[in-house]
Here is the input.
Amino acid sequence: MSQPGQIFIVSAASGTGKTTLVSRMIAHQPFIRVSISHTTRPPRDGEQDGTHYHFVSIREFEDLIGQGAFLEHADVFGNYYGTSVNAVNSLIEQGFDVILEIDIQGAQQVRKQLPDAVSIFILPPSFAVLAERLMGRGTESKDVISRRLSKAHHEIEQAFLFDYVIINKELDQAEQDLLAIIRTSHLRGEKQQQTITDVLAAD
Ligand code: 5GP
Here is the structure.
């Protein structure tokens, strides 16, 4: 792992299946990590502190904001979410690619600060499929689902601002598309300066 890793922002309207997609993809990729966010949202069944999120109180989160601990942070559906700048930098320095699974507000903040970050938006095949997936999850109240659906339209309008858009219709295909974007990013000429220099030096 001689090169530093790259940052990939992955956003979607909630219920699009982005967590499943990303988890599946990284299971076979030892050099790609997902950044574990901090949140003030209570854990859902099966979620573990330090694995799915760092679950913290509002007070702790606000202290971390004050310390400048976040690369980005946002209020999503009434809870705070944020990405730890130290955790991301440490992974990048070790040569890992880092995926930030964050909402569109966070994506905007990261794009502004780190224009080199590659942004990817995951689209559902349709609103009907999105509604079905949100209800099928069975973890949220009706009120939360209807709020999420009305927000989804606004979120999907922001997809135009992303570098890449993947349609999550077939999970296998979407997984291949995501990996293809990551691989292609590493092949960009500007990322291969050292390789070119090494080849020339060995002449
Ligand atoms: P959930 O509560 O369903 O896990 O996540 C709700 C939303 O918050 C999702 O869109 C998710 O991508 C987003 N999210 C998770 N972590 C972060 C983060 O660190 N920053 C931002 N801005 N959004 C996040």
Notes: The CA atoms of residues 40 and 80 lie 5 Å apart. The pocket of guanosine-5'-monophosphate is lined by residues 14, 37, 41, 72, 74, 76, 81-83, 101-103, 105-106 (CB under 6 Å). The two ends are 23 Å apart (CA to CA).
